[in-house]
Amino acid sequence: MRPIDRFFSRLSRLEAGPVPDKKQLARVSGDFAALVAPLTGARTAGELFDRALGRIERFGGPGKPGGGSSLQKLGAIAAFFTGEFDDETMSLEDEDWEDLRETLKEISGEMDIETLTALMGELLSRGKI
User: Fold this and answer.
1) DSSP helix/strand/coil, 64
2) Minimum mean pLDDT among 62-66, 68-72, 94-98, 116-120: which range?
3) Most-buried pick from 42, 56, 58, 64 (CB within 10 A)?
4) Which long-range contacts (CB under 8 A, 24 or more apart) does 69-74 make?
5) Strand, coil or helix: what is 67?
6) 26 falls in which pLDDT band (50, 70, 90)?
7) 74 near 53, Cβ under 8 Å?
8) Strands annotated E in 19-107
9) Would you say 94 and 102 are in contact if contact means Cβ atoms under 8 Å apart?
């Protein structure tokens, strides 16, 4: 099983249970960082996770009354950075795409140029630049 698949599996298990507690979210944050930090740096990965989680919680969050965004969004963001984003099975909101674009812009001088070019190309192909 690929690391991104394990991450999605953990997210699915969390969504199937009660609202995740802080300890569970800390583990998810660590898993997210393990996937994203090699490309963005640990600080940026943590900030990206926190912003995405904030957007999920703002819209009700998983397991809360009124539905809301799914933790799967965290997996989709990680998949974008690892080059495994699939438009057919994953989705992100415009605000998420904006955050990805801004994040890449902020860390462009610190990233490997080939990785940055590939990720910006992905944004461009989706009309997000």
Assistant:
1) strand
2) 62-66
3) 56
4) 69/93, 70/11, 70/15, 71/11, 71/14, 71/15, 71/20, 71/28, 72/8, 72/11, 72/12, 72/15, 74/7, 74/11, 74/28, 74/32, 74/49
5) strand
6) very high
7) yes
8) none
9) no
